[in-house]
Amino acid sequence: MTTPLVSLKNIRQRHAGRSVLCVDSLDIDPGAIIGLAGPNGSGKSTLLRILACLDAPAEGEFIFLGRPTTPKFDAVHRHITLLVQEPYLLKRSVYANVAYGLKIRGKNDIPAKVDCALETVGLNPDAFRKRQWYELSGGEVQRVALAARLVLKPKLLLMDEPTASLDEKSAVLIRQAALSARDEYGASLVIASHDMAWLKAVADTIIHLEDGIIKNID
Known about the structure:
Layout: E1 6-15, E2 18-28, E3 33-37, H1 44-51, E4 59-64, E5 67-69, H2 74-77, E6 80-83, H3 94-104, H4 110-120, H5 125-128, H6 138-150, E7 156-160, H7 168-185, E8 188-192, H8 196-202, E9 205-210, E10 213-217
Parallel strand pairs: 3-8, 3-9, 6-7, 7-8
Antiparallel strand pairs: 1-2, 1-4, 4-5, 9-10
Helix pairs in contact: 3-4, 3-6, 4-6, 6-7
């Protein structure tokens, strides 16, 4: 039996004393693609932030590769990354943004890895390496932000409405690049999106949330 990459047990989250998420059990297997569907306010972003180890739940257990752990534990956090709908870039060049995580981890061959990540998201390294953050379109910002995450080869890639408000070309490239993480090195993906056609096309499982509760699973 395959050990889940992440398991959540009896997760409860509250904001201002109000329950916003109630998940009794959720397993994410290595290499799985899970879609999160539901209206705004249904709990998708709250669940992603818990999975990303950005927020600790009010109650419940976070299990990583079979071992219960504190959600903000650094050794776990380094294997998980979240791409939000409106990502923040450092006020630096494209190269510096994509290389940042590699540098703080003391990785080698950084220039080659940065170029590979840029190519994965459809950005020509020669044209974009030296470009500054303020010279990018909205779609290019999203693609640079995704490249900065893919270059780290996370075990779990989380995406919160990654193609909302993007032009179709950028949306297609974001989708293709995200799937490359699973295809090339076996990452698991959890994608929150209103694009049901995309979720149905790529996801092994679609979880439908409403009022912070899992209503059904396809």
